[in-house]
Design brief:
The protein is mainly alpha-helical. It folds into two domains: about 140 residues, no CATH class; about 35 residues. About 60% of the residues lie in helices and about 0% in strands. It contains eight helices and no strands. The chain is flat, with a radius of gyration of 38 Å. It starts with a helix and ends with a helix.
C-alpha cells in the first residue's frame, strides 16, 4: 500500500488544476463533479497499490515521500488526460449517436421517436451518462480494494451496509494499532535466572545468601568448622528453615 501523504498531496494538486507533466493544462469536456468522482477513484487505487517497488532498497522518509509524490502526480495527470477525458468525450457523444441511429432505423416505417431523440440530444442526458460512468469506476475500485463487497447485495441492503460498517471499524482499528493509539501497555515480568537463589533473613550476615551450588559448600564448611562449637547463633536456625 502506498503512503497516504504523498498520494493525497498529488490528488489535491490535481483537484486545484496544478499540473507539472502536462502543458498546457487540459480540462475535461464533461461536468467537473464527474471528473472529481473519477479522480477520487484513481486516488483510492493509487493509494492501495505499491508505488515504490518492494524489491528496491528503502530510502529515507523524506526521499521516499518525494519519489512517491512525483510518481503519483505523473500517474494522476496521465490517467486523467490520456484515459478519462477521451473516454468521457466518447460517452458524451454516445447519446447523440444513439438518437441519430434511432431516427435512421425508424424513418423507413411509420414510427417516430421525436420525444426520445430530443431527450437524448439534451445536455442533461450526456451529463447523466458521464456521472454513471464515473460512479461505475468508483464502485469498481471500492470493490477491488475490498472497501466494500458488492456480493453482499444478494443478501439485501441491510447486510450490505452492515458489512460496510464492519469493514470501516476494522480499518480504523488497524490504523489505531499501527499508530499505537489506545493500546494498553503490557508489563512483562522477567523470571529470575537462578531459581535456586536464597535470600538471607534480616539481621544475618550476607554470607548466608548463596546459590544452590554454593549452599552445599557452605554447609560442609560450617559443619566441619563448627564441630567443637556448642553455641549456635539464631541465624543458623533460620537458615535451616530456608533449606
Amino acid at each position: 500500500m502506498g503512503q497516504l501523504v504523498p498520494v493525497f498531496a498529488a490528488y489535491l494538486l490535481l483537484c486545484f488544476g496544478i499540473q507539472y507533466f502536462r502543458r498546457p493544462r487540459e480540462v475535461g469536456p464533461g461536468p467537473l463533479v464527474s471528473s472529481y468522482i473519477f479522480m477520487f477513484a484513481a486516488f483510492l487505487l493509487l493509494w492501495d497499490i505499491r508505488l515504490y517497488p518492494s524489491s528496491l532498497r528503502r530510502l529515507g522518509i523524506i526521499s521516499q515521500c518525494i519519489i512517491e509524490f512525483l510518481v503519483a502526480s505523473f500517474l494522476f495527470e496521465n490517467i486523467m488526460v490520456d484515459f478519462w477525458f477521451p473516454l468521457e468525450l466518447v460517452v458524451l457523444g454516445a447519446s447523440w449517436a444513439l438518437a441519430d441511429l434511432l431516427e435512421e432505423m425508424l424513418q423507413s416505417g411509420s414510427w417516430t421517436c421525436d420525444v426520445v431523440c430530443d431527450v437524448l440530444r439534451t445536455e442533461k442526458s450526456s451529463y447523466a451518462a458521464s456521472y454513471m460512468l464515473s460512479l461505475f469506476f468508483l464502485l469498481a475500485v471500492l470493490h477491488a480494494t475490498r472497501a466494500i463487497d458488492l456480493r453482499e447485495l444478494e443478501n439485501g441492503p441491510v447486510a450490505f451496509f452492515g458489512d460496510i460498517g464492519y469493514r470501516t471499524k476494522r480499518y480504523f482499528r488497524r490504523q489505531k494499532k499501527y499508530l499505537g493509539i489506545g493500546i494498553k501497555k503490557r508489563v512483562h515480568i522477567r523470571e529470575n535466572k537462578d531459581r535456586n537463589a536464597i535470600t538471607a533473613p534480616s539481621g544475618c550476615p550476607s554470607e548466608i545468601s548463596s546459590t544452590g551450588k554454593n549452599r552445599g559448600k557452605n554447609n560442609n564448611k560450617n559443619s566441619s568448622g563448627n564441630k567443637n562449637n556448642k553455641r549456635k547463633s539464631p541465624c543458623d536456625n533460620e537458615f535451616k528453615t530456608y533449606l
